Amino acid sequence: MGALTAAERLGPVRAGPLQVGRLDIDVVVVPDRQSMRLTVERDARVTATVPAGIDVAELISAVKGRRRWIYNQLDVRSEDAAIRPLKEFVTGEGFHYLGRSFRLKLVDEAPVPVSLVRGRFLMRRDRLDRAEDELIAWYCKRGRAWLPARAKPWIQRMRAPVQDISVRRLGYRWGSCHHDGRVNLHWAVMQLPASLIDYVLVHELAHLHRSDHSKEFWAVVARAMPNYVARRSELDKLGATLWLP
Ligand SMILES: [Zn+2]
Description:
Distance between the termini: 30 Å
Bound molecules: zinc ion
Number of domains: 2
Order of helices and strands: HEEEEHHEEEEHEEEHHH
Number of helices: 7
Mean pLDDT: 89
CATH topology of the largest domain: Zincin-like
């Protein structure tokens, strides 16, 4: 979503996306609210809940004043260093795919740098110096092959105008979407059980209807996935334990 023009900055704030520097803020207007509240959502979207009538300039300066806190929250979301596992690329190490753990086996010869064969991740020794990149590339490739068929019934049920769906490096977010219909999931999500990947997907598909985290947005999620609350809290727990170098 584009930045505001100077004229718009002078007016009262409206619900919807607002760009402040590099941050994309979702603005939610609650008429009977007394003060502004900033929250960093589980998926790293930043929401400003504001009273009606507050000025855009006032909101922007408040967000700027709390920028350090916001980036700290984003770092916590992305790292959770205390529980995130450190992996070693040695035979026997476990890596997850679709919720199951598979042991790594280093091999001298294989047609591709990384593969999942008969319940084992095979990695070629001559790629060990870039082992992380090779495995991440495998998750992206495998995810791109797996996801479209998985997504199809959700896309139909939610009538989501999806143009393209992909798996890639996404930084802070588990998923992202663009109003032109591009949907991306973070490669690390492919480590999760399929039911939780579904939640990330449904969340992004719902954003194609509503870009904010308003009541209406969660209603769209709930219609498609009535038990989304349980899945979301499971994602919060498991998401913090994913391997994320
Ligand atoms: Zn969201």
